[in-house]
Amino acid sequence: MRNKVTSNSQRSIAVRVPASSANIGPGFDVLGMALDLNIEAGFGNAPAESNEADENHPLTVAYRHCGGTKDLWVRSQMPMGKGLGFSGAARVAGCILAHAEKNGVEAEKFDQAKPEIMRVASELEGHPDNAAASMFGGFVASVDGFAVRIPTPLDPSIIVWVPEQQTSTRESRTKLPASVKFEDAVFNIGHTALLVAALAAGDIAALSVATRDRLHQDLRFVKSPNSKLVLQAAVDAGAWCAWLSGSGPTIAAMVDRRDAQRIDSALPNSGAKMVLRVAQRGAELFEI
């Protein structure tokens, strides 16, 4: 990225979009949750500690795809290539800013445009789980252009363990098989249904079983074996459940807020660790 954008305009349109953790075990390409790390972007006068988003940035690519014409600034709390939905959030932000350039920041117009914005961002991303969570916040199930928030009485902490290595989602997906065994497909369908039901019912005891997977995690752990060890360490320390976040290598664990610091301390220091919350607010559009 280049230095901070400067502009003679006094009006700046900005968007704030949360990070996400996708799949949540068995919900491959379907389930996601928003996390309280944000990317902020906009056009017009740029705030402090922001950078110009060049033409190769996924934010700008999405913005241009949707007809945006201005120079964009960006600042982000999210690590890239770690499985926390950076590209999905950036693409959602770019599509929203293109909408705002044409329609302004009126809340009603933005709300009406959200399904279409999510659809386009999901097409650019290649799957909807990250984009839907970043757009709508909370826990979200998404498929075929539909995204539905999963209501839950749970208010957990989400501990993420983030190693130094990066993962290319595109490369990671090439390692997955083109077909799966019938019993493995049924296993994941059943566990995804159980996971949605457990979240909706607030059934903590079911979560460790509900987040088991047979489609993608073990194949991805081959490239990041330390991540598998951390997942087990989180569960052993008392996490309700843990999973490979997106395509990894980050591990996410859902824990009781009262136990968050203790479980965080039990995880290896070989990766960066953050104690986060589920972001209940999705993408926000505003003027500054």
What is the mean predicted local confidence, pLDDT? 93
Quaternary state of this entry equals single chain
* CATH fold descriptor of the largest domain: Ribosomal Protein S5, domain 2
Unreliable stretches, pLDDT < 50, 5 or more residues?
1-9
Structure notes:
The chain folds into 2 domains: 13-151 and 279-287, 2-Layer Sandwich (Ribosomal Protein S5, domain 2); 157-277, 2-Layer Sandwich (Alpha-Beta Plaits). It is 38% helix and 22% strand. It is built from 10 helices and 11 strands. It has helices at residues 58-65, 86-103, 107-125, 129-136, 169-174, 182-201, 204-210, 217-221, 225-236, 260-266; strands at residues 13-22, 31-43, 51-52, 73-76, 139-143, 146-149, 157-162, 241-244, 251-255, 272-277, 284-287. Strands 1, 2, 3, 4, 5, 6 and 11 form a 7-stranded antiparallel sheet that branches. α1 (58-65) packs parallel to α2 (86-103) and α2 (86-103) packs across α4. The longest helix has 20 residues, at 182-201.
Quick synopsis:
With 288 residues, this protein is of the alpha+beta class. It has helices at residues 58-65, 86-103, 107-125, 129-136, 169-174, 182-201, 204-210, 217-221, 225-236, 260-266, and strands spanning 13-22, 31-43, 51-52, 73-76, 139-143, 146-149, 157-162, 241-244, 251-255, 272-277, 284-287. Strands 1, 2, 3, 4, 5, 6 and 11 form a seven-stranded antiparallel β-sheet that branches. A four-stranded antiparallel β-sheet has the order 8-9-7-10.
